[in-house]
Amino acid sequence: MKDKPVVIGVAGGSGSGKTSVTRSICKRFSDKTILVIEQDYYYKDQSHLPFEERLNTNYDHPLAFDNDLLIEHLHQLLDGKEINKPVYDYKIHTRSTEVIRVEPKDVIIVEGILVLEDPRLVDLMDIKVFVDTDADIRIIRRLLRDIKERGRSLDSVIEQYLNAVRPSHLQFIEPTKRYADIIIPEGGKNYVAIDIMASKIESILAKNSENN
To answer: Is 168 exposed, middle or buried (0-12, 13-18, 19+ CB in 10 A)?
Structure first.
């Protein structure tokens, strides 16, 4: 691959619609190869901790993520090298022994609640996006997801939201909005914002091709 990949950061609170924005971008560029790197896959390995201690981890805090490994992997992809993307096992609350072999692509989307929090990550991004959705919509989406997909109880989801998710959002996630090039209300259904992003991505890809 001769052209430098375009790196897009997609941030926003839990349940904001980051995944729908990412899917919308992928649909617009079906003729290009797109790689999605989920920050959730880069939660720190906790195998050295007892299971009871792992349950107390605040997964909405910057210290929960292994950004050093994520940044190392992005540099390797930008250099045209393959990586072994980690897999996080939510059942045992630590990193799985499995990895996913990943090749560099034309467009790399880095998606996660705190991808705009680390300046080292931000410096690698060509386009920085913050998906901005009202808190009441985000908590409803999180409730439905965690109960349906992760087998959580209503009480446990609400307790986690009040004790960890909401405070971390206000302290760490919301302030990163200032670093975004584009703020997208309501996620992937904001077609005007997606159109603007698509045009910008095309222009960067064209410029990279001219320089090679």
So the answer is: buried
pLDDT digits (tens, 9 = 90+) for 90-140: 888 889 999 999 999 999 999 999 999 999 999 999 999 999 988 898 999
What architecture is domain 6-206? 3-Layer(aba) Sandwich (3.40)
Q: Which phi and psi (to 5°) does residue 163 adopt?
A: -90, -25
In the predicted model, is pLDDT for residue 67 greater than 90?
yes
- Phi and psi, residue 178, nearest 5°: -65, -20
Q: Which helix (H) or strand (E) element contains residue 111?
A: strand 107-111
* pLDDT classification of 1: cutoffs 50, 70, 90: very low
Rounded Cα distance between 36 and 26, Å, is: 9
Contacts of 210 (CB under 8 A, 6+ apart): none
The strand order across the sheet containing 127-132 reads 34-38, 107-111, 6-12, 127-132, 182-185
**What are the start-end ranges of the H helices in the chain?**
18-28, 51-54, 67-78, 119-122, 135-149, 154-160, 166-168, 191-210
Return the H-helix or E-strand segment holding 129.
strand 127-132
